[in-house]
Design a protein that fits this description.
Blueprint: H1 7-15, E1 20-23, H2 29-42, E2 47-52, H3 58-65, E3 70-74, H4 80-88, E4 92-97, H5 100-108, E5 113-117, E6 123-124, H6 131-141, E7 146-149, H7 155-163, E8 168-170, H8 185-193, E9 199-202, E10 214-217, H9 218-226, E11 231-237, E12 240-245, E13 257-258, H10 280-297
Parallel strand pairs: 1-2, 2-3, 3-4, 4-5, 5-7, 7-8
Antiparallel strand pairs: 6-10, 9-10, 11-12, 11-13
Helix pairs in contact: 1-2, 2-3, 3-4, 7-10
């Protein structure tokens, strides 16, 4: 969820009894350490941080391992040296994978658990298989806890993934509508109005991150292709405003101004479950209580 996955959102999810994940892709190591230390003081729940391999800063990883309970990596071949680095800091190490091979590599590298991401997922997508096909293959080849990710936004999908053998699920798109997420209001409105068939896996928004397929709202692709300029807007980064080039991988936050419709409006196939803005705790409660009821009724 990139920059929209704020520490406030992670804390709210953790307070509700789930695992709150934060992403600080452009932050220096001292800010990473400070943000995670603040999270530890704000919640007694479990929080972790996600690192994208193409933008990896080892100083940030080292700082995170001292503060977070979980350090996760995504979009690169699993590396034992990174797992050892996070373990030295006392954190559990996770790797988000998109294939059977990558799952085996992550297990061999010493990861504590895996996230199997299907192509239904919003944002950047690693593999080429739907979630349940991937989950079935990964569970066959690794002896580690596996989290299912991609297209999970309802209790029914959560229950289905758990019934299929996943140890837990990851929910992304649904939390874009959390009150604590840093999501631009127009982006939120478009998510609420969208149906699952209105998402598309594309490579259009590749400026700043080439050769990385991603799932967005189809309308964002259409609007960006039709937009006549080279700059679609500006976003506040730190104390200054930064121009957002056309086809940028940045998604619009609350401080973003410009042609929001033509920006990277990431959304997974679970977008149909996004009905309105809600507190994160309410989303967690609805998902868990609904899944428990469904799984209990089948025993």
């Amino acid at each position: 969820m990139g920059m929209v996955a704020t520490p406030e959102l992670a804390a709210a999810v953790a307070d509700a009894g789930a695992v709150g994940m934060v992403a600080l892709p452009l932050a220096p190591s001292d800010q990473v350490a400070a943000e995670l230390a603040g999270l530890k003081s704000r919640t007694a729940g479990v929080v972790g941080i996600n690192f994208l391999m193409p933008f990896l800063n080892l100083d940030c990883v080292e700082a995170a391992a001292d503060q977070a309970k979980i350090v996760e990596f995504f979009y690169g071949t699993p590396e034992r040296s990174l797992v050892e680095l996070t373990h030295r800091g006392g954190a559990l190490t996770a790797w988000q994978v998109g294939s059977e091979l990558e799952a085996c590599q992550a297990a061999d590298a010493g990861c504590d658990f895996l996230i199997a991401q299907g192509t239904e997922a919003g944002g950047h997508v690693r593999g080429a298989m739907g979630l349940f096909t991937l989950l079935d293959r990964v569970l066959d080849v690794v002896d580690l806890p596996v989290v299912a990710a991609g297209g999970i936004g309802t209790s029914r999908m959560m229950a289905a993934a758990l019934a299929a053998g996943a140890d837990a699920v990851r929910v992304g798109t649904r939390f874009l509508a959390a009150s604590e997420a840093d999501v631009n209001p127009e982006y939120l409105d478009r998510l609420v109005a969208a149906n699952p068939e209105e998402t598309v896996l594309t490579d259009v928004f590749s400026v700043m991150w080439p050769d990385a397929p991603h799932r967005v709202l189809r309308s964002a692709v259409e609007a960006s292709l039709a937009y006549p300029g080279d700059v679609v807007g500006e976003v506040l980064l730190g104390e200054s405003r930064t121009a957002i080039p056309k086809y940028s991988a940045l998604c619009p936050t609350r401080t973003t101004i410009g042609e929001i419709a033509a920006m990277a409006l990431y959304a997974g196939e679970s977008v149909g479950a996004v009905k309105r803005e809600q507190p994160a705790a309410e989303i967690v409660r609805q998902l868990v209580e609904g899944a428990e009821a469904l799984l209990g009724s089948r025993r």
